[in-house]
Amino acid sequence: MVYHIMCEVQPDQEKALDEFLTGKMKKFWLANAGVSRYHVFGDHLANKLERIITIEVGDFGNFDKILALDERKELRSELMQLSSHVQSRVLQLIE
The whole model's pTM is what? Predict the structure, then answer.
């Protein structure tokens, strides 16, 4: 499964958000059992600055445990301060 997060970023927060996503947040996710990949993408087709984060997690059991962690909740709060219009999805591979 893939946890997919998309957010918009103001130009004055772009550097801070990118450092957060590629540093603190990446370190947290990759340190958890069941997480195999973590990527941050910039959307160059959008008419605004966006970041898309994809996190591959082995199964829903691991994912539920990670979501319940206080540190994950703190990181989510920090993400909300650095960006706007945060949306997330849980995607399951069909093929």
Answer: 0.91
